[in-house]
Each structure stands twice: as structure tokens, then as C-alpha cells.
Amino acid sequence: MTPATVFSRTAFLAAALALLLTATSLAQAEEMTFTQIRAGCNDSAAPEVDWSACYKPSADLSGADLTQANLTEANLTHAVLTGAVLTGADLSGADLRGADLTNADLSGAFLRGADLTDANLSGVRVQKADLIEVTLSGANLSGAFLTDADVFDADLTGADLTNTDLVGADLSEAIWTDGRFLCPRVNWDLQLAFRQYRSGSVG
């Protein structure tokens, strides 16, 4: 085998390997880009925007109108959503740890399985919202409106419920602020009033 033949084969193999690596990188980039485009992660805040599984930690969305937006499994840790409108939005499985939702409107929103640990929800409106299995440990819910909300199996350990309106809310199987389970659908209204009275969270 002549040196020229060896060189030719080596060059061919190197070119083929480079082409393979380039194709793989392009495929991966295309897949990532497709996911971002499909979810509309780069779209501006607007009603019905699709930010599902998007990464937006510490985003400033104060006063944004996100009516019926798709925020399922989105990362919104430490995001600022003060005064935002999220009525009918889908935030199931979203990560909202440490987020500021002061005076936001989440009426009728779907937050099943969302993580709101240490979030500020003071004055928030969550009437008739789905809060099933939501983590609210350490959250500030003072002055919030949770009337007729479904808070089944939620975790309220260490949450601040000072002057929180829970009229008609379903707290069955939820973990109360003292870390104890509420009894399942058995005189929970009376039980709730008693716990609030003892904890001093009734205004």
C-alpha cells in the first residue's frame, strides 16, 4: 500500500467522522430548538401563551396577563409575578419555589402538583382553583382568597394563613401548618376554625 493510498484512506475516515459528529450535533440542536419553538419559550407574556416546561427562573412578569396560559412544568423559581393575571392558567407541576405572586389573580387556575415552597402569595386570589397535591410549605398566604379552592392533599406545613379566606375550600387530607393531617371530609370546616383559633391565624 502506497503512502498516497494510506493518506487518502485516513483523510476519508477523518472526513466521515467529522460529518457524523456534525450530523449528531445538528440533530441534537434541532431537537432542542424544536422543543423551544413548540413550547414558545421565547414568546412574550400574553394570554394563552405556551410556556410548558420552559426555563424562566427569576423572570420579571409583574402585572403580566397570562390568562389561560400553559405553564405546565415550567421553571419559575423566584420569578416576580406580582399583580399578574393567571386566571384559568395551567401551572400543573410548575416549579414556583420562592416566587413572588403578591396580589396575583389565579382564579380558576390549575396548579395540581405545583411546588410553591416559600412563595409569597399574600393577597393572591385563588378562588375555585385546583391546588390538589400542591406544596405550600413555608409559603406566605396572608390575606389570600382561597374560597371554594380544591386544596386536597396539599402540604401547608409552616405556611402563614393569617387572615386567609378559606370559606368553602376543600382541605381534605391536607397537611396543616402544624404538620398534622386534616381528617378526610369530616367536619373539616369546624376543624379548620378550631386550628386557626389555636394558631392565632384568625384575624
Description:
The protein contains 2 helices and no strands. The chain is elongated. It has 2 domains: 1-39; 44-203, Pectate Lyase C-like (3 Solenoid). Helix content is 24%, strand content 0%. By secondary structure, the chain is mostly helical. The protein has helices at 3-39, 188-199.
* Overall mean pLDDT: 83
Using the alpha-carbon principal axes, give the shape. Answer: elongated
Low-confidence spans: 26-38
Total helices: the number is 2
Helical proportion? 10-25%
At CATH level 3, the topology of the largest domain is: Pectate Lyase C-like
- Estimate the strand proportion: under 5%
Assembly status: single chain
> What string gives the helices and strands in order?
HH
**Amino-to-carboxy terminus distance:** 93 Å
CATH arch. level architecture of the largest domain: 3 Solenoid
How many discrete domains? 2
Number of strands: 0
CATH class of the largest domain equals Mainly Beta
Radius of gyration in whole Å, from Cα?
24 Å
**Main sheet properties:** none
Structural class: mainly alpha
Question: What is this structure's SSE topology?
Answer:
Blueprint: H1 3-39, H2 188-199
Explain briefly what this protein structure is.
Helices cover 24% and strands 0% of the residues. The protein has helices spanning 3-39, 188-199.
Task: Throw out a few tags for this protein.
0% strand, 2 helices, 24% helix, mainly alpha, 2 domains
